[in-house]
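To: structure desk
From: M.T.
Subject: fold request, one chain
Message: Could you run this one when you get a chance? Sequence is below, nothing fancy, just the single chain.
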Amino acid sequence: MTTTMSDGATTTSSGGANVSVRDLWKIYGSTTKRHLDAIRTGTDPKALGCTSAVRGVSFDVAPGETFVVMGLSGSGKSTLVRCLTRLVEPTSGHVKIDGTDVLAMTNSQLSQTRRNDWAMVFQHFGLLPHRRVLQNVAYGLEVNGVPRHDRERRAREMIDLVGLGDVEEKFPHELSGGMKQRVGLARALVVDPKLLLLDEPFSALDPLIRADLQDQLLRLAKVVEQTAIFITHDLAEALKVGDRIAIMRDGEFVQVGTPEEIVLKPKDDYVRRFATEAPRSKVVTAGTAAQFTPVVSGSATVAEALESISSAGTESAIVDPANQEPVVVTARQLLSSNAHQTAYEAASGQSVTVAGDVKLVDVMRELVRTGNEVIVRNPDGGLIGTVSTTAVVKALSIV
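Reply: Done. Structure tokens follow.
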């Protein structure tokens, strides 16, 4: 895949990896096999003196997806992500990345794949202090034997991509924490990895810089399109960057779902405690909040529109002309209009149409700006319904 950068330069991407994990365990201790056998047979393993950091975890990550593992300290999330690339050796289970059995790889194969196909970004930047930003970012390509001209060109593209084009000649000690983390991100991306692993990459940064880097990561996810597994202890961060989220506790996945599913349908009280604090307006989508609203044609009369509203038990209808944008017309507008007008002519005020995946916070802005219900479309272009002030209140209510 070829991607056009903001400055007109192009960069290639090999596409995201497909990750499949089945029944993955990591047990620490001297009798790990006996410990695992005891668990599987229902015997109490406490006397064996081992600790289970990851307990029978299974999940899949689709190419191009950002999969977030969220949990409190000690939940096993960092151990899990290290098991995927065997920085920590799993005790048992199966890990396949692009169909390759990771646990069957030789050390040589692992080293080569880590250099070429996988990249990790940690909380600690790990930059080379004696090298400038450009050389830090290009380091992975240098190790792989890429000629200097080519690796520096590629490194400059990545530096521009993360918004650091004016600091490529500076040394790490001359950079702020947020800048250093951007350099770390650029260094990970420069090798065009199929799989990007991020272990609490922004947790040491202050809130404003952290939010900025989260936005940067979301933008990069759209541009570069590689698979990412993101580890965090912050639910707000998980909800913002994740396509799907796994809530982890005591080495196990409690619930896996989309941000909306985690917030609106928590599986148990543990997840519910997190969901209660979630910024719902930034998670719930217009498609979820939309309420059924009857649709009438652009030529429908006032009487016909009123009949549709009455039959549906709503307060408004969507008028959908053939060659114009749809508008919302309310029963009050229809009742006060000229009987000879069409429903389209009776509508007043501005009507805004949004896609179903638009977040409710953006819909709320349009509600305030226009004073009218917001029309919602599905990906095929069909009309889902409208979001009113009442619909917003229902969507934001915690049940």
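Reply (cont.): Residues 286-396 form a domain with the CBS-domain fold (CATH 3.10.580.10). Let me know if you need anything else for the meeting.
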